[in-house]
Amino acid sequence: MTETPQRPLRVLAAMSGGVDSAVAAARAAEAGHDVTGVHLALSANPQSFRTGARGCCTLEDSRDARRAADVIGIPFYVWDLAERFREDVVDDFIAEYEAGRTPNPCLRCNEKIKFAALLDKALALGFDAVCTGHYAQVIRGADGARELHRASDMAKDQSYVLGVLDERQLAHALFPLGDTTTTKDEIRAEAERRGLAVAKKPDSHDICFIADGDTQGFLASRLGKAEGDIVDESGAKLGTHEGAYGYTIGQRKGLRIGTPAPDGKPRYVLDISPVNNTVTVGPVDALDVTALTAIKPRWCGTPPSGVGTYTAQLRAHGDETPVRAELVDDTLDISFAEPVRGVAPGQAVVLYDGTRVVGSATIATTRRAAPVA
More exposed terminus of the chain, fewer Cβ within 10 Å: N or C? Predict the structure, then answer.
């Protein structure tokens, strides 16, 4: 079961302005902890971030968080982490796309902002833990070490984007929603019972720092247009693009290829090469990946040794797939029991042992299935 603290803690509740973080803060306070709410100002110009209820970084969101803290009856502050967020999340996002990789900014935000910059500052100020509205569980294992596990409700599980947390960070993390099997509607009903005005506020979607949701336009404004070729697997030119960074592995729509494939079937992005600024497309079967290597591993506890069997998750809302994995010189070698599709360098691969999160790493290279003769 989820570990229950033996004594009241001084808790810093990260409040995004949404319903989940508000209910999490309320539950922490109700459990007897000394809770202080904090909203992270992640943009020097919050109005340039999403407006309405689609983001987590707007002026409206900070006001919603403050109103929720007032209702709960806890102190509330706004902390300016805009410069750190720009350097560690936004600039990293741009650099990864420029290098032909597909990053996950939410995962990077959890690693660098919420459980590094925020947690370090909280501990320096005498807080015991940081509380968030993520759906995941911290459980004390048989050896006394803290483990990260999936949420009780798999439909809401967010352990994938928390797979970057190490044991020290887990020791200071509270996820009050992780062991609940209530539906999101029930969470909203709970918020309404508590008098929280965010009860009916829609969930945030997409990337908070891209104001209009146009990722390609955002990247173009920062990286500029760079025309290159779209080619097939033989290298034959099929069309042109205005920036290889505007494509992702597995993409089907928006390729702007005038000539249909010989077999009449759709084509998909198979490879993105920033070196020669080309995008390679081909049939869907060519997306099948049988193995990968991943770098920069982060372990939620003791690193594994030798070859192990696990399940792996490759996207925030993706399915699990059986794998064999081995750590060799700080690089993960992973092979899949069955081929998987749409795996892109830059994405995170998170390993699980049952519901326990073993760790996370960044996909560096992939190996495709041999073509059928």
Answer: C
CA 17 – CA 29 distance, rounded (Å): 17
Q: How do the pLDDT tens digits run along the chain, 373 residues long? A: 455 556 799 999 999 999 999 999 999 999 999 999 999 988 766 554 444 434 456 778 899 999 999 999 999 999 999 899 999 999 999 999 999 899 999 889 988 998 889 999 999 999 999 999 999 999 987 788 899 999 988 888 999 999 999 999 999 999 999 987 777 888 999 999 999 999 988 877 668 888 777 888 899 999 988 899 999 999 999 999 999 988 999 999 888 787 778 888 899 999 999 889 999 999 999 999 999 999 999 999 888 888 999 999 998 888 999 999 999 989 999 999 999 998 999 999 999 999 999 999 999 999 986 655 4
Q: Which of 56, 131, 208, 300 is an active site residue?
A: 208
Question: Is 109 labeled as catalytic in the residue annotation?
Answer: yes
Which listed residue (56, 109, 131, 300) is catalytic? 109
pTM of the predicted model as reported, rounded to 2 decimal places = 0.89
> What is the distance between the alpha carbons of residues 299 and 314, in angstroms, rounded to a whole number?
16
H or E stretch at 129: strand 129-131
Residue 208 annotated to the active site: yes
